[in-house]
């Protein structure tokens, strides 16, 4: 039990809740769906054989791990059909920490407003917006960047814990200072993820990968 308790605290689980996403990001495994290759049909078969995480399995994960990230490898957690129940279950483990990573978009701002209303204090929403609303969709293909940007600001205004994850590409470097300003004004932590690739996945010589985090969030009651 000592070893199990150690592993629970040392390791955070990363869970794919579903198999759905409406984006076509170039570095995602789903990008094969954007190309007319033999791999496309294989991946479509993989998706058709996939399913949503059953609630009973979710219960086991939440009960065992002290820290869980819902960050899809091939999906976005906002498409999990039981996301309201997920948030309710998270609220019962007040001493544990959960993160929901999202870059895709749901139907409208009303959906986000309702979901943020039931988000407990131990859940952090991490928004994948690579630049401002006028550039993020360049890499996040088909992202409704303006809607997601509005949702992120709304979450912060409703005192939900929010982090802005910003992958830095050559075309959005000029927007970093503005992003810092917006994050500070809206009580949002900002993480800059510097990439050595362009938006198509091509390596750019001379660039290194690194992260830079700015903690602008002020705890408010």
Please specify the SSE layout and strand pairing.
Elements: H1 2-10, E1 13-14, H2 38-48, H3 55-64, E2 67-70, H4 83-90, E3 97-102, H5 109-117, E4 123-128, H6 145-157, E5 161-168, H7 176-185, E6 189-194, E7 210-214
Parallel strand pairs: 1-2, 2-3, 3-4, 4-5, 5-6
Antiparallel strand pairs: 6-7
CATH topology: TIM Barrel
Poorly predicted residue ranges: none
Strand content: 15-25%
Shape: globular
Helix share of residues?
25-40%
In short:
With 221 residues, this protein is an alpha/beta fold. The protein has seven helices and seven strands, in the order H-E-H-H-E-H-E-H-E-H-E-H-E-E. It has one domain (2-164): TIM Barrel (Alpha-Beta Barrel).
Structure keywords:
221 residues; TIM Barrel; 32% helix; 7 helices; 7-stranded mixed beta sheet; alpha/beta
Describe this entry's structure for a reader.
- There is one protein chain.
- With 221 residues, this protein is α/β, with parallel strands linked by helices.
- The chain has a single domain (2-164), classed as Aldolase class I (TIM Barrel).
- The protein is built from seven helices and seven strands, in the order αβααβαβαβαβαββ.
- It has helices spanning 2-10, 38-48, 55-64, 83-90, 109-117, 145-157, 176-185, and strands at 13-14, 67-70, 97-102, 123-128, 161-168, 189-194, 210-214.
- α6 links the parallel β4 (123-128) and β5 (161-168).
- α5 packs parallel to α6 (145-157).
- The longest helix is centred in the C-terminal third of the chain and has 13 residues, at 145-157.
- It is globular, with a radius of gyration of 18 Å.
